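Structure request: Citrate synthase, Stanieria cyanosphaera.
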Amino acid sequence: TTFFCEYKPGLEGIPAAKSSISHVDGQKGILEYRGINIEELTKKGSFLETAYLLIWDRLPTKEELKQFETNILYHRRIKYRIRDMMKCFPETGHPMDALQTSAAALGLFYSRRALDDPEYIRKAVVRLLAKIPTMVAAFHQMRKGNDPIQPNDELDYAANFLYMLTERKPDPLAARIFDVCLTLHAEHTINASTFSAMVTASTLTDPYAVIASAVGTLAGPLHGGANEEVLLMLEEIGSIENVRPYVEKCIANKQKIMGFGHRVYKVKDPRATILQDLVKQLFGETGQDPYYDIAVELERVVEENFGHKGIYPNVDFYSGLVYRKLGIPDDLFTPIFAIARVAGWLAHWKEQLAVNRIFRPTQVYTGVHNAPYIPIEER
Ligand code: SDX
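Returned structure:
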């Protein structure tokens, strides 16, 4: 067999696509969505505007954005049959499993595979962006024994999610900060869950299966699941004095420290810096946070020990502190990551449809040949 390049575990450094959706400079700590710097977008834009930019490759006009927001508002509700199905889910199940299952179930209700019809594509984009947050909030309400709360049409995308989750209208600062978090998590080139979405999309299956595949991939602790693990770690450390002993224990056990390290960033993830500022903004509202002080000390000690290896905080390190200050339960941090990343997954789904080439890599065969079939009596 002739290979075009040698095998690299995890496809490290292997281009799996040509894409113009986003760009990461891992040495300089730069993230751009369609060429626009993430700092600009989080300061001046909104999540839905960013989703439009990612998916349709340009910033919407005022009318287009209004129409997009209105369409999504109309599609927020989920079918009662999906709500009934979710009532059968065990309340002890992880919300990511509930989301993966209910996202796939959307495919049961909508026509499949009209992928050459731009109207089908547009509808699928609107339905998924609109319904995924509702499904996350609905499962959370049901596992508490409540009926799901219907979306509130007076509230924008971010505020409505917090409302469906907490049963209270959020204050404007909380809604604004949450919207910025969604923009920060919307897209990040060919990460594991986006790659899953692309591989699934390349078989021309329906977009609901594509999103369900990506949700399952994001759930892993090495990927989106790290944000939930970070707070458990900060609780385990418990005090600033315990930070150094904790890091030394991780080094001794060759245990990875959650919220640090990245395949691409070899400096601090620019999203971590923005999230850190959001935590400080929330201090005004909710007071200093001992876990934040532990996190800052942990960042310092990790830099001392791992900075030379290019291991710095990634997007998952401070996000949990923001979500906790917004009153969001720890096990919903990764579903929130999924809510935002639906925008990026859909952008790559559309881009992959245009490539229209099924993913089918090869392998370096390390097995044997012409092996005998041994009868069971002789084994
Ligand atoms: C996300 O890809 C994306 O873009 C993902 C993401 C996105 O927006 O989609 O940015 C979101 O998933 C952020 C990552 C969240 N995960 C975590 O925080 C879990 C902890 N991080 C590590 O598991 C790890 O850093 C990864 C998975 C993020 C990256 O893994 P790599 O690129 O495969 O790195 P590696 O495991 O090969 O590590 C290289 C070296 C190793 O040391 P050596 O064996 O070479 O001596 O760095 C060490 C690792 O042991 N290392 C760490 C470490 N991460 C890497 N050591 C301690 N703590 C860590 N966190």
